[in-house]
Amino acid sequence: MPQSQPAPMPQPQPLSQSQSSRQPHAQQPYAQLPQPQYAPQPVPPSPEAAVSIRGLFKRFGNKIAVNGLSLDIPVGSFYGLVGPNGAGKTTTLNMVTGLLVPDAGLALILGRNVWQDVNAAKRSIGVMPQPDQIFDRLTGLQLLVYAGMLRGMKRAEALSRARDLLNAFDLAQAANTMVSDYSAGMTKKICLASAMIHSPRILVLDEPFESVDPVSSANLKDILIEYAKTGGTVIISSHVMSLVEKMCTHVAVINNGQVCAAGTVDQVAAGQDLEDRFLQLVGGRHAAARLSWLDGGAPHAPASAGSPETSPTPVVPTQAQSLPNPVTPVQPAQSQPNPNETAVR
Q1: Nearest-angstrom CA–CA distance, 137 and 9
Q2: What's the burial of 277, exposed, middle or buried (CB within 10 Å: 0-12/13-18/19+)?
Q3: Could you tell me where the DSSP H helices lie in 86-126?
Q4: Which of 232, 310, 245 is closest to 272 using CA atoms?
Q5: Contacts with 22 (C-beta within 8 Å, 6 or more apart), sequence order
Q6: What single-letter DSSP state applies at residue 110?
Q7: 254: which residues sit within 8 A by CB, 6+ positions away?
Q8: Cα angle vertex 119, ends 113, 122, to 5°?
Q9: d(CA 238, CA 209)
Q10: In angstroms, how far is the first alpha carbon of the chain from the final one?
Q11: How far apart are CA 249 and CA 238, in angstroms?
Q12: What CA–CA distance (Å, rounded) separates 122 from 31?
């Protein structure tokens, strides 16, 4: 029997424009498919920065002191860290300088991971100790020599630098006096000198001008500014906005363990006074509490109905009122002769 031929396959017909628009989305060219959106990747740490922090985290019990803090501090900058009490400034500095182990995160000092080689990182930094962290039973000269030799310096070199620092900080007369007998300002000076004796590339100072008189404070500022001009990096933690605004080139506002704003002082201030900008970023400003029992003793006028109680306004006398009325001097009365007296001729 002759074999039957298969029926020819129907040829596909071109789609009209209206039909092509109704085709499933999968038949469109791949180039027209929407691209998937990925979460932004974290910025890697900067090896060129003096200090580069990424995701630093520290918890004390139920209290989160530092919560994923990231910050870059340029080389040669005068960087201020400001924030309210308990914001995490000191905890951050302790982790960056190798004094406190972080729970998470990364910190680089001049491109070197702090916690991979703590001793190598510490050689590049000078941390100003607090007065209760030094051996105050040593004299000022002995303390500086000890700090230098602790950094690996030879005794002769440490002694020479110690004398230079004592002269620079106006402590030469107290070189052989025990630090325990120093004033608060002198103690701050010797603490700063002990952080500088090994010529570090980065200085970390926590409240360096607290309890320091204006003259000593001005001298300390001059020394730090000259140090920054040589390429050194200064990091200070302070609550004094006017000091930070005047001295620092950069500033970071820290609150609740995170950076609220960071950059140059002008960038952070955003055309405002730095203190006003700080209060705007941090918040917490409220009206002054009025305590009914807190009375300075000034007389108070009775408050009228419906009006707030106000103290009486002192009346300042005018020039005419302040002068006493002219008084006619009283002439002494002429003495009358006593009839009982005998005249002496």
Answers
A1: 105
A2: buried
A3: 89-96, 118-122
A4: 245
A5: none
A6: T
A7: 69, 81, 82, 83, 87, 88, 89, 92, 260
A8: 80
A9: 8
A10: 197
A11: 14
A12: 53
Please report where in the chains the tokens 């308990």 appear, as a residue: 86
Which residue is associated with the tokens 């705007």? 280
Q: What is the H or E stretch that residue 148 is in?
A: helix 140-150
Q: Which two tokens stand for residue 65?
A: 């002191």
Q: What is the pLDDT along the chain (345 residues), one digit of tens a residue?
A: 555 555 555 555 555 555 544 555 555 554 555 554 554 556 888 889 999 999 999 999 999 999 999 999 999 999 999 999 889 999 999 999 999 999 999 999 999 999 898 988 888 999 999 888 999 999 999 999 999 999 999 999 999 999 999 998 889 999 999 999 998 888 989 999 999 999 999 999 988 887 777 887 888 888 888 898 889 999 999 888 888 888 899 999 999 999 999 999 999 999 888 988 999 898 877 777 788 888 888 776 555 555 555 555 555 555 545 445 555 555 555 555 555 544 444
Residue 321, phi then psi, degrees to nearest 5: -75, -30
Distance CA 170, CA 178 (A): 16
- What angle separates helix 155-168 from helix 184-196, to the nearest 10 degrees? 140
Q: Which tokens sit at 150?
A: 């602790």
Count of positions (residues) in the chain: 345
Tokens of 311: 């103290």
Whole-angstrom distance, CA of residue 154 vs CA of residue 158: 6
